[in-house]
Amino acid sequence: MAVITMHKYQGLGNDYLVFDPNQNKITLLERKIRLLCQRNFGVGADGILYGPLLDEGKIGVSIFNPDGSEASGSGNGVRIFARYLKDFGYVSEKKIVITEKSKDVEVEFLDDDGRCMKVDMGKADFMRSVLSDGCSREMFNEPLMFHGNFYNTSCISLQSPNCVIMTEDVSCKHAKELGPYVENAACFPNRMNLQLCKVESRNRLRIQIYERGAGYTLASGTGACAAAAAAYRMGLTERAVTVVMPGGELGIEIGPDGTVFMTGTVKKVATFTLAEDFFS
């Protein structure tokens, strides 16, 4: 059996495995993705970054959730993948563009070793088109019922669909209890990420995250951006905020044209080879 080499990185406790198809010759099937991400029977991760996919000068990545489904994008994932590209000599420029499923993402390295990056996450879209009724109006700070209770909700598409709920109860327990109901609500046919958000000051938010296909998560780049976009539009914060999550902090800034920028760090955990009988 061919040797399978993988690389593990984490961004604020949100950990990913990088599977480079240029180094490995096996097909990464859904069953193998689920097994790799399992923390007891596998390696353990919040997802897998499959790439680089090299096509006519472009550098692409496919992002997979622990349940084997493909994600449309990931803020932490794209930072991790950018660090991997720099570590293994695929890129040397200060600014690079990575193609995800949903869009091209520009990443700027803020230091020489690629540990800190600023990412152009695009503009937050509050359109209700993510909902099952197909209505084109915005979904901003409106009541929706989850698990028998109404919550003022903002639905934001920013690489992935996010449901931001402003609340004083920003706890792990609350996120784990409410998360499955939001993720699988009938009004979200493609499933939904949840961010519980508390405004601590004009420049500081605290959030808890429950992600579709992954469950409770220590950090989320797209989630932090969505929460900051919602809070700013409500008039609760300035353009630049620090978003605090269980895994650490991200700097989020909303430009004059509505573009959301994320600044954060990435750490490498390990490079390793899988046991020959791992997938047997």
Structural features, described:
With 280 residues, the chain is α+β, with helices and mostly antiparallel strands. It has helices at 30-37, 75-87, 172-183, 221-233, and strands spanning 5-11, 14-19, 48-55, 58-64, 70-71, 95-99, 104-109, 116-123, 142-146, 149-158, 160-166, 193-201, 204-211, 215-217, 240-245, 248-254, 259-265, 267-273. It has an 18-stranded mixed sheet that branches. Strand 7 (104-109) and strand 8 form a beta hairpin. The longest helix has 13 residues, at 75-87. The protein is globular. It starts with a strand and ends in a 7-residue tail after the last strand.
Features:
alpha+beta; 18 strands; 18-stranded mixed β-sheet; 280 residues; globular; 4 helices
Structural category is alpha+beta
- Estimated helix fraction: 10-25%
Radius of gyration: 18 Å
Number-wise, the strands total: 18
| Mean pLDDT over the residues | 93
What characterizes the major β-sheet? 18 strands, mixed
Please give the count of helices: 4
Shape by Cα distribution: globular
Strand content: 35-45%
Order of helices and strands: EEHEEEHEEEEEEHEEEHEEEE
Terminal residue distance: 11 Å
User: Unreliable segments (pLDDT under 50, ≥5 consecutive)?
Assistant: none
